[in-house]
Amino acid sequence: MTKNNFESLTTRLSSKGQVVIPAEVRKQLGLSVGDQLSVDIDKNNNIVLKSRPTPLEWHDLIKNIPIEDVDIDKEGHYDAHKSPHFDEWMREK
């Protein structure tokens, strides 16, 4: 058994370049029809699929990000008192 609770599974590449993700994997990862996946190649030439956040997950990720207008002049200066969250972000290391 792997750390993913299932043995290594095999799938095939179709003539259209499609790959079926086995049901066990979809279930464990909570993947549903229409979910978006990103496809990458790692340094060992392995294909890496990553699930993309759903619109609801994006909402939950960004809901606590403060919204404020930041006026920056031609020299790149802004008023830290009018844009405290931006100022805090700019000072992070």
From TrEMBL:
GO molecular function: DNA binding
Keywords, alphabetical: DNA-binding
SpoVT-AbrB domain location: 8-54
Superkingdom of origin: Bacteria
Keyword set includes Membrane: no
Entry-linked InterPro entries: SpoVT-AbrB_dom, SpoVT-AbrB_sf
Keyword Iron: no
Name by which UniProt lists this protein: AbrB/MazE/SpoVT family DNA-binding domain-containing protein
